[in-house]
Amino acid sequence: MVMCKEIVENIIGYIEAELDDKTLEELEKHLHDCPECQAFVRTYKKMLELTGKLKERTFVTPEIRKKLKELLISKIKYQES
Ligand SMILES: [Zn+2]
């Protein structure tokens, strides 16, 4: 059973298609049933688009990845409390 935290851990790999088939399948199953995680994916994709526009291509620096991950984790923690 995939939890929301695991989605956050793997969301970058998910969006950038870096996951192996098994992980991808599990994440997609979770996403299908979890509106919160669907919203996270949308938010992340939007940020990627904005970043891509600024740099005229999709390129996410490690700093952006880190910030986004912290943002998503803090959101999940907020929802759980
Ligand atoms: Zn979830």
Description:
- The radius of gyration is 13 Å and the shape is globular.
- The chain has four helices and no strands.
- It has 81 residues and is an all-alpha fold.
- The protein has one domain.
- The model has no long low-confidence stretch (mean pLDDT 77).
- Zinc ion is lined by residues 4, 7, 30, 34, 36-37.
Task: Summarize this structure as a short list of keywords or feature phrases.
mainly alpha; binds zinc ion; 0% strand; 81 residues; globular
Biggest β-sheet description: none
Instruction: Give me the count of strands.
Output: 0
Q: Give the H and E element order.
A: HHHH
Low-confidence stretches: none
How many helices? The count is 4
Describe what is shown at a glance.
With 81 residues, this protein is an all-alpha fold. The protein contains four helices and no strands.
How are the secondary structure elements laid out?
Blueprint: H1 4-15, H2 21-33, H3 35-55, H4 62-80
This protein binds zinc ion.
